[in-house]
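Request: Could I get any protein with tokenized structure?
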Amino acid sequence: MTYLSNDPASFAEDALAGFCELHADTVRRVPGGAVRRTRPGQPKVAVLPGGGSGHYPAFYGIIGPGLADGAVSGNLFTSPSAQDACSVAMAADSGAGVVFGYGNYAGDVMNFGLATEQLRAKGIRAENVVVTDDIASAPPDRVADRRGIAGDFTVFKVMGAAAEEGMDLDEVVRVGRKANDATRTIGTAFAGCTFPGADAPLFTVPDGHMGLGLGIHGEPGLRDVPRPGARELAEDFVARLLAEKPAGARDRVAVLLNGLGSVKHEELFVLWADVSRLLRESGHTLVLPEVGEIVTSLDMAGVSLTVTWLDDELERLWTAPAWTPAFRRGSITTADAGATVEDVAVAGAPRFAEASAASKKLAASVLDGLRAVRTALREAESELGAIDAVAGDGDHGRGMVRGIDAAVAAAEAAWRAGAGAGDVLAAAGDEWAARAGGTSGVLWGAGLRAAGEAIGTQAGTIDARAAVDAFAGRITALGGAQPGDKTLVDALVPFQQRLRTGTWAQAARAAEEAARATAGLVPRKGRARPLAERSVGTPDPGAVSLALVARTVSEHLEEGT
């Protein structure tokens, strides 16, 4: 468990603040994460790993010469927002472009993708390298569906060295993807991890067993198997990785034996003795292997083994010097010396369209509705988290609460500034997306903004059907989910369809029925997909939370009549 925190909801931000204070000579905090204290005097590609917090030293612990130029840091196990990614990128860019590196999770793909589009619109070259090293999360014929776990580090190290050498953006991206294609990881969990402030872990493992194929966001393993001794575990890990050796790969390998948070170094050394022997007996040469905590998962008890097959180029980049707070190799002369620190400009207060008196009055009702939703989501936070933990990372309740809290604060500020109903809802959506992060954060944020745009700032009443159509259209276009994928869309579409012929209350009941029915579905999207069978019998948390919001709004409307 996590013993030290102030407000559990701000744990990730507080940890980042402490890290940046401790290492103030080398890093500085910016909105959305951290960057190197100085930028190079000459343009170089900025390598920016990112993802949710809870994985230290990934991601901000590896900021420094030879590795990352900055890191985008989301809430615990939650992807950072597109706004966060843009903020860090603009602080780190020195004129040669930026490349985001992250694991293959829906929220990360969506938010970093949006950030890339926004940066390009501002004239900043931006690219993405998505890591897919987890062999347990999808079979070899579906490599693109695999998660990114501890192999992140190898890919980031290669890209950081390439950028330090002076490679241009296209070349840095090329070697990053090359490293990803050559990287395989397998992991296991002995016990689950616990969020700050929580009184129980996200998942449990039966006594004497381990969860094979863990994820780094608190997801349980793909299946529970009897826990072997260190030698048997090493044999299993090595055999699984060697079975996936890329065609034509050489026999020189970079190897990471990674502790997930609670496995002590001495235990890792015991396991390493067998892992290294088995790899050498298979004819492989180990090149600067690493053993320790590299990509963690809060206090999870677990280990993972990563192998990257090296060619001459990848070996040169893997062995190149690096100097960061959490990872140091060799000695390095950095171009950062003498460069100036540039602060990120802070955007001014938002400006809203001129609103009619009727729309300003309607804005108060919209704000009251958001407050009612906030109360409902806070009360349901634990329940939503428990549903999500069955096959996901257990953060859905906390993410929804974080989102609605930010949305209400933004809506209140907009209302006080005299905004109309549409702008109040749009402002709420923007802040939901910026503060909640993750897949649900960007979807809810984009959906609320679309609904606000449909409402506008002149009318004194809301065309509910038009607003919901805009909300649903933006979400389905952005997320790409269809009915039957076991996502919030499975509740959203029935709600939208019933509203076209009935009342909001009738539509809300249709959403609740549809949400309950998702228990029988097999997920085809999101973090639950790798654990599809485990999910059967449990409703989708996104569908459940959407139905809850619909019912809460219905009750708010009834009270107002």
Notes: The longest helix spans residues 357-389. Confidence is low (pLDDT under 50) at residues 344-348. The chain has 17 helices and 15 strands.
